[in-house]
Amino acid sequence: MYELNRLNYERARPLFRKLDVHLPLQAILAGNVDAPIYVDNPLHPQTALTWTGHRFYLAGTPGNTDLIAAARKIFLENFAMNAWKTGIDSYILYYPTEKWENFITAMLQHKYPIKSFRSYYAYKAVRRKWEEQLPAGFSIRPVDSALLSQKWKNPDFLTDELCSERESVQDFLAKSFGVCLVYGDQIVGWCLSEYNTGHRCEVGIATLEEFQHKGLATMLAYAFVEMARNRDFARIGWHCSSTNAGSAATALKAGFDKVEDYPVFIGWFDDTSNIARNGYFAHGRGEYAEALAYYEKSFLLGDVPDWVYWGAACDAALVGENEKALKYLGEAIDHGFNDLENIKNSKFLSGLHDTNGWDKILERLERES
Predict the structure, then answer these.
(1) What CATH code is assigned to 2-112?
(2) How far is residue 368's CA from residue 358's CA, in Å, rounded to a whole number?
(3) Domain 123-261 bears CATH identifier 3.40.630.30
(4) Average pLDDT over the chain, rounded to an integer
(5) What are the b/e assignments for 69-99, b being 16+ CB within 10 Å?
(6) N or C: which end of the chain has fewer CB within 10 A?
(7) 119, pLDDT greater than 80
């Protein structure tokens, strides 16, 4: 594949048409985001790929074996290495149609990407009077120099996000916009524009865990949309995992309509972490034997955190391998897993309750707690 000259990015635009809802692509094509585009033919491209941050995009027509090898090389040596160096540990791979899935499986052979689904929401014109709905003690303020000049208990919660897409805080203030939720001397939430291109932007939103499930994120979204409309942004997009019920509910309450669900592949650059995550997702699908196999494979690759041993214990118990389940439960405890109540009440471990080792596990936890 060939890196396309930035003066010729328009040649690749038709290939990305089916991915129009993904604004980072439009920002790349418009030159608002510094990112390479690789194509199979610089004059008449039929296949293209590009990336920004943790997002990797494939477009056009899937190619042959040689193209798969070229795309794999770019993914591993350019995208993955650069992302890893900047502290990004995982990726989302986007593609236009299911015809790409065999290509992706071959491109990421032995990397075990996980197929998942995300959802896209678009704003509909509904005016909300959010000011009257804010609880006492909270305020929503624009993200500007005045806000940032104040002393906050947790400034990094906001500034780290400001620099996640833009080069610096000042670059964000010059090119983007947003609002944040304030409570006392703490920033407890933010809603920021992403990939502003023409009259389009996307939404990035978060609240601190202890302030979630109180309707505050919806208030933030109301205020953000009002700011965006006042700045003549006609299309406001919202992406989230299809399993993220909280984000979906907030989008709908804030006046967004669901447009579509779309498939993606996700993965972690570290092989050990990625294999362990495959176990987690297999467990979620009810494929307990497969989940256990993934967990055990991750043990052979390197050190893993306590939750991996916990997951292996649960899945071993679910498939009736009680001795193995007790062994992994002990290793989970060795690695710091000490949630006695969770262990006692887990439905996944109920098959262990009549075994000789179960009481020993509980006695150990009670003794060490």
Answers:
(1) 3.40.630
(2) 16
(3) yes
(4) 94
(5) ebbeebbeeebbeebeeeebeebbbbbbeee
(6) C
(7) yes
